[in-house]
Structure formats: structure tokens, C-alpha cells
């Protein structure tokens, strides 16, 4: 007996979101409906797809394998539909939201993108996804990961950079102790920076801790202090002069990777090539910092 299509759709979404409540919000149903659909699918298949705890769900080993098969099945269906749809070709990209806003969107204004003569369907995620959507031609993820059916290529390699608004007149790390230190999540990167510079960490200096990697850049732009950020996220502000780099150690961070399907369409290949060209230009700019 073939699995119920509605249950498969619920499972595929739950495998990506790793949350029944997020899946329910995405599909416009209740978490209980998602749970029931997946339970019925598990009964039909004869094995558990998820490990369930009081507060979270996670794919079992068998569930991960099945998610890969379902993802590829949906992918074939959507590819056939796209091939029969006339008009300008569309490339579907899954990408981390901050990287999209700070690095990709400013580049879509360039003639080199318009010359591709294609449409983009862009969907965002905030964390590295467990499974890439079956309707995606490609994805950009932060951090080293493997996804079934996709080949991985390094796209850009961020480096930490100290930034401040020009109005504060800060030019060296030593001057940071007189102001406010801004960072994401915790003071880990600031402590590394001071250690690499051979300077004591100024524990008495006030700090602002933010929970997204783009927010320290925005806080620094507003003149709230000096931020430790990465040059991928701060690129636009540095190029426009809204922020300036401050002398100090540059530390490597985790890379962004382009995940492409092995059977990707010609328009998607062209877009991937354009992204790689942009990444090459970015690397040249990095060397000038």
C-alpha cells in the first residue's frame, strides 16, 4: 500500500523543521494533526521515524534514511512540473536568512545577475537544516555538513573583524576598553581577540550581548560601541563607510557552503557559477581589509 500523500508531506516538513509545532505553523494545521499524520505513517511503514521526548523530536536513523528518499521523490515531482511550465526559468534557493540579507541581496542589483535572465525563488532558514527541501535546486548553509543528494563546495570563508562607526574615532583594540564591547551570544570571540593580541580582557568594560550575528553590526553602526563581527555580515556597511575596521587580530570562522544537486538544471548551474564568481570577488576584497 502506498503511503498517504498528506502524511508524507507532513513528515517531509517535520524532518526539515525538527519540530511538530513549527511544521504545523508552516502547513497551517495543528501540532496534533501533524503528530497523528506521522503516527499513521509510522504504523503503515512499521518503524519509528522520530524519537519523541517531552520537549523535542528528532529523526531516528531509519527516519533520516526515509526522509532522504521522500525528499528525492518530491524533488522528481517538482522537477517534472517545472520542466512543463513555460516562461523564464526559476531557480529555487534555500539560504540562511542573515546571509541572504547581508551578502546575496545587495549583489542582485548587479548587471551580471540580470544577464542570467532567470527568476529566483528564495526561502530562508535560521539554522542549518537537517534536510534540504525537496523543491530546492541548491542551498547555502553555514558550517560543515553533508546532505544526501547534494555536493558540497566552499563558497565564502568569513573572518572576524573589529568594527566601529567612524564617529567614535576608535582605531586600535587597546581603545576598546574605554567604550562598550558588542558581541553575539557570549564574549567568546572578544576573549579570543584580546588573547591573540596579547592584551588582558577588560572585564570591567560594559558589554552588549545580542542573539543574532547581524545585530552586533547594526549596533555598531548606531554608535553603541565596538563590535566583533565577521566580514561577510559586515561587508556592506564597510564598503559604504557606515563602519570602519579597527586594527586587531583576524580569526577564522566557519565557512558557508554551496550545496548543489548532482542533476541540477542548466539555469541553476548558471546561477551557481554566478555565486562562485561573486565569492571570488569577495575573497579579493577580503585581502584588502
Automatic annotation (TrEMBL):
User: InterPro entries this protein is in?
Assistant: LysR-type_TF_proteobact-type, LysR_HTH_N, LysR_subst-bd, WH-like_DNA-bd_sf, WH_DNA-bd_sf
User: What are the residue boundaries of the HTH lysR-type domain, all occurrences included?
Assistant: 3-60
Q: Which domain of life is it from?
A: Bacteria
Single GO biological process annotation from the record: DNA-templated transcription
Q: Which UniProt keywords apply?
A: DNA-binding, Transcription, Transcription regulation
Signal peptide (UniProt feature, chain positions): none
- Pfam families cross-referenced by the UniProt entry: HTH_1 (PF00126), LysR_substrate (PF03466)
Q: GO MF annotations for this entry? A: DNA-binding transcription factor activity; sequence-specific DNA binding
Similarity comment: Belongs to the LysR transcriptional regulatory family.
Q: Which PANTHER family match?
A: HTH-TYPE TRANSCRIPTIONAL REGULATOR, HTH-TYPE TRANSCRIPTIONAL REGULATOR TRPI
What's this protein's name?
Answer: LysR family transcriptional regulator
Amino acid at each position: 500500500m502506498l503511503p498517504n500523500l498528506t502524511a508524507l508531506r507532513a513528515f517531509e516538513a517535520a524532518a526539515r523543521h525538527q519540530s511538530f509545532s513549527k511544521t504545523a505553523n508552516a502547513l497551517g494545521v495543528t501540532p496534533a494533526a501533524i503528530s497523528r499524520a506521522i503516527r499513521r505513517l509510522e504504523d503503515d511503514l512499521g518503524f519509528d521515524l522520530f524519537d519523541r521526548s517531552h520537549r523535542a523530536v528528532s529523526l531516528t536513523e531509519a527516519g533520516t534514511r526515509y526522509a532522504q528518499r521522500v525528499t528525492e521523490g518530491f524533488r522528481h515531482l517538482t522537477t517534472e512540473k517545472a520542466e512543463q511550465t513555460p516562461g523564464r526559468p526559476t531557480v529555487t534557493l534555500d539560504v540562511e536568512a542573515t546571509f541572504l540579507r547581508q551578502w546575496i541581496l545587495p549583489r542582485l542589483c548587479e548587471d551580471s545577475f540580470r544577464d542570467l535572465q532567470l527568476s529566483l525563488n528564495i526561502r530562508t532558514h535560521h539554522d542549518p537544516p537537517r534536510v534540504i527541501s525537496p523543491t530546492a535546486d541548491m542551498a547555502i548553509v553555514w558550517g560543515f555538513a553533508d546532505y544526501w543528494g547534494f555536493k558540497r563546495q566552499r563558497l565564502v570563508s568569513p573572518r572576524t573583524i573589529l568594527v566601529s562607526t567612524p564617529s567614535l574615532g576608535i582605531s586600535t583594540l587597546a581603545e576598546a576598553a574605554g567604550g562598550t564591547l558588542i558581541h553575539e551570544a557570549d564574549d567568546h570571540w572578544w576573549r579570543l581577540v584580546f588573547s591573540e593580541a596579547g592584551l588582558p580582557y577588560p572585564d570591567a568594560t560594559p558589554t552588549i550581548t545580542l542573539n543574532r550575528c547581524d545585530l552586533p553590526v547594526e549596533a555598531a553602526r548606531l554608535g553603541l560601541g565596538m563590535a566583533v563581527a565577521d566580514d561577510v555580515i559586515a561587508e556592506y556597511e564597510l564598503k559604504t563607510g557606515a563602519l570602519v575596521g579597527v586594527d586587531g587580530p583576524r580569526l577564522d570562522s566557519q565557512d558557508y557552503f554551496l550545496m548543489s544537486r548532482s542533476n541540477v538544471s542548466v539555469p541553476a548551474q548558471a546561477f551557481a557559477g554566478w555565486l562562485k564568481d561573486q565569492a571570488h570577488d569577495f575573497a579579493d576584497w577580503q585581502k584588502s581589509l
